[in-house]
Amino acid sequence: MTNSVPTPSISQQRVAASLKRRYAAEMRFRAYGIAAIAVGLMFVAFLFTSIISKGYSSFEQTFIALDVDYAADTIDPEGKRDHDTLANADYQAVIKASLRTQFPDVEGRASLRHLYGMISNSAEQVLRDRVLANPKLIGTHATVWLLADDHVDTFFKGQIDRKLSEADRPISDEEIAWVDALKAQKRAELRFNPAFFTSGDSREPEQAGVAGALAGSALTLLITLLLSFPIGVAAAIYLEEFAPRNVWTDIIEVNINNLAAVPSIVFGLLGLAMFIQFFGLPRSSPMVGGLVLSLMTLPTIIIAGRASLKAVPPSIREAAFGMGASRMQMVAHHVLPLALPGMLTGTIIGMARALGESAPLLMIGMVAFIVDVPHGLSDPSTVLPVQIYLWARSPERAFVERTSGAIMVLLGFLLVMNAVAVILRNRFERRW
Amino acid sequence: MSIEKHLHSVSMARSVSFNEADHSPPGDPVDTKTVGQVTVASPVISARHVNVHYGDKHAIKDVSIDVAKNSVIAFIGPSGCGKSTFLRCLNRMNDTIANAKVTGSITLDGADIYDRSQDIVQLRARVGMVFQKPNPFPKSIFENVAYGPKIHGLAGSRADLDDIVHSSLQKAGLWDEVKDRLDNPGTGLSGGQQQRLCIARAIAVDPEVILMDEPCSALDPIATAKVEDLIDELRENYAIVIVTHSMQQAARVSQRTAYFHLGDLIEVGPTEQIFTNPGHKLTEDYITGRFG
User: Fold this and answer.
1) Fewest beta carbons less than 10 Å away: which of A256, A320, A424, B210?
2) From CA A217, how far away is CA A355, in angstroms rounded?
3) In whole angstroms, how far apart are CA A396 and each of A196, A279, A399, B51?
4) Residues of B in contact with A321 (CB under 8 A)
5) B129 with A244: Cβ contact below 8 A
6) Average pLDDT over every residue of A4-24
7) How far apart are the C-alpha atoms of A167 and A117, rounded to whole Å?
8) Min CA distance, A349 vs chain B (Å)?
9) What span, in angstroms and rounded, lies between the C-alpha atoms of B151 and B154?
10) Partner-chain residue, chosen from B96, B147, B202, that has the shortest CB–CB distance to A321
11) Which residues of A177-316 form beta strands (DSSP E)?
């Protein structure tokens, strides 16, 4: 055998010749795939870097330490100490006095107005709450950290170039001098800003928070989930397992597929006409928002549900029927457990889309400026994407970071929602 | 059980519908009238003039046959001859196929199973089925066997259920192999074990008839031998209808054999007679391997 090397036949030579080409094609395809993923990751990285670098500062605000004199003759000159007096007292005056004590050299109406404008007008609320909680404070001195106004905050965070001429920046030279002085005395610093997560929208950027939009989104999505998941799953099961195959079910199927492709703003118009104008449900409410988003999400869930029911092997159905299971038992005991992971995937996709939806909600009035955090399904509210839109078009420089901050909250919401769904899905996942 | 042993052990009952003197079968290849012994003394299932249409396709043509108690009847024939279709008529599994239409009468203990008053759930509890490909539920071994008794409410207590599962697995010859892992998934067993699990599942509801649609076609020879032995044992308590592609298997396990050809029931009779002295030309051609 050693001296008789067998010559490969013609076909073997051809196979050998084609191998190189085939492997090259495979390598090329792999390279395309890796390149596509790399580009995708690059964009994701870019997006996240951009949003986080702009948005992280919204979680911090500039606070200024003031030596507050809870002067009795300003707050409660008559010494009654009752609730009404304390609640209606002029805390603005207390703050102004404190500021004047801090900067005794400031004179002139314009300069004083600038000085008073350094502190957010939410500060008087802070003092009022403290005094109401503890009236014994009256007549004492205390150092209180108060929220700075947004233009001070923006400057403090380095988002305003101090080299610009005074006319081109929203903060004046004397204010810059005061901020520098406060900073030098360690009386101004960046602190975590819980109000961003606990308060609703505000015209004052330093007081604006996402709590209202977050609660609105949560309530709206709760309604959407509670309506669209059971209805969608039930519709998918009925159409796939129970309904006869005839012209009517064909028409229904075509219509469901078409509904999935209808632009979402059309659902908003439908919701406006039907839920608000015809049924008279409260506008701007999470209830109507949830109904509209349910209409939008249902086709997605039904289509995904039917696909996952179709994917259950027919042998399982036959086995169940062969055992004498009724159709309902066959579905509930065998088919549904196997199809549920797929249905949950469809629901995740639908809900994620609903969470990011703003257009249909504009139609039903959820774009209104709403300060209060909604506590019920009929309270007026807005949702995160609409809040982002509202802030993005606001002129104040300080709303830029809020916009990115709200986007981070929205992405976080999405992540939490998907994580829960994935955990649920894995729990239901079975192999056969 | 070997075919020889089988052929000698069973009495040579002869059919009445063909001429014994004529050595070569008289059946005309185009004459598809059933020859042989359609009826039995104590039938559990009697099918008369059954026709099945799938849309335009005439899948079963005027088939009449009896299934005897405590015996195994094998349906043989080339692929697409309608034997599985006919089998599935016996517990109305064809109901799930949208455009299938069954006419004629099939009676179980004298009652028409296609009658309006026949409950399909009850029918399937009385006529169990084992499929070609082992199809255990994606649940534990215990749950697989317990499913039927549970949905039909056969077990009064947990102890009853345990007993039913135990005895069913024992009857199916699977108990010793799985008794320590009843909580493991049924899908984790080997192919042969899965098929015996499906048989255990079918007998757990205590049916009268068990239909088996090529139960060994996905199994290796050793697993096949075990299932065949099992079928022979089950004959003591159940009537069994088995569809098979293997003529050897038909010869090994069945007492009666029916030969189907293109939707017609060509011949039915005692197994040894079908294999040694077929009454129809088509049967002879098939069992001698001239086509199939």
Assistant:
1) A424
2) 7
3) 16, 39, 6, 82
4) 93, 96, 124
5) no
6) 81
7) 17
8) 27
9) 8
10) B96
11) 188-192
d(CA A137, CA B171) in angstroms, rounded, equals 87
The SS3 of residue B151 is: helix
Taking an 8 Å cut-off on Cβ atoms, the answer to whether B137 and A319 are in contact is yes
**In angstroms, what separates the C-alpha of A323 from chain B's closest C-alpha?**
6
Judging by beta carbons within 10 Å of its beta carbon (0-12, 13-18, 19+), is residue A75 exposed, middle or buried?
Answer: buried
Q: What ipTM describes this predicted complex?
A: 0.81
Q: Do A319 and B131 touch (CB under 8 A)?
A: yes
Longest alpha-carbon distance in chain A: 122
Q: Which two tokens stand for residue A29?
A: 């395809």
Which DSSP state fits A242?
I
- Per-residue pLDDT of B13-44, as tens digits, reads 333 333 333 444 444 556 777 888 888 888 89
pLDDT tens by residue, B169-198: 988 888 999 989 999 999 889 988 999 999
Contact B93 A316 (CB under 8 A): no
Name the pLDDT band for B6 (thresholds 50, 70, 90).
very low
- Size of chain A in residues: 432
Residue A212's nearest CA partner among A406, A356, A56, A58 is A406
Contact call for B135 and A319, based on CB within 8 A: yes
User: pLDDT (tens digit, 9 = 90+) per residue, B120-176?
Assistant: 888 998 999 999 899 999 899 999 999 999 999 888 889 999 999 999 998 888 899
Give the 3-state secondary structure of residue B54.
strand
User: Is pLDDT of A49 > 90?
Assistant: yes
In chain B, residues with a C-beta closer than 8 Å to the C-beta of A316 are 135, 137-138
SS3 A186: coil
In B, which residues are within 8 Å of A315 by CB distance?
A: 131, 133, 135
> Would you state the pLDDT for residue A252?
93
Name the residue in chain B with its Cα closest to that of A241.
B96
Work out the minimum CA distance from A232 to partner chain B, whole angstroms. Answer: 24
Per CB-CB distance under 8 Å, the chain B contacts of A245 are 98
The secondary structure of A96-165 as a DSSP string is HHHHHHHSTT--SHHHHHHHHTTB-TTHHHHHHHHHHH-GGGTT-EEEEEEEBPHHHHHHHTT-S-TTS-
Is the whole-model pTM more than 0.90? no
Q: Nearest-CA distance from A258 to chain B in Å?
A: 26
Residues of chain B found within 8 Å of residue A340, distances taken between Cβ atoms: none
A431 touches chain B (CB under 8 A): yes
- Under DSSP, is residue A69 helix (H, G, I), strand (E, B) or coil? strand
DSSP character at residue B140: B
A:231-250 residues touching chain B, CB 8 A cutoff: 244-245
Mean pLDDT of A12-17: 84
Residues of chain A neighbouring B136 (CB-CB closer than 8 A):
319
pLDDT at B11 over 50: no
Among A251, A254, A257, A295, smallest CA distance to A273 is for A295
Task: Compute the mean pLDDT over every residue in chain A, rounded to the nearest whole number.
Answer: 90
Is CATH 2.40.160.20 the right assignment for the domain spanning A211-428? Answer: no
Per-residue pLDDT tens digits for A338-392? 898 889 889 988 999 999 999 999 999 888 888 889 988 989 999 999 999 999 9
Per the DSSP assignment, residues forming a β-bridge with B50 are B63
CB contact at 8 A, A398 and A205: yes
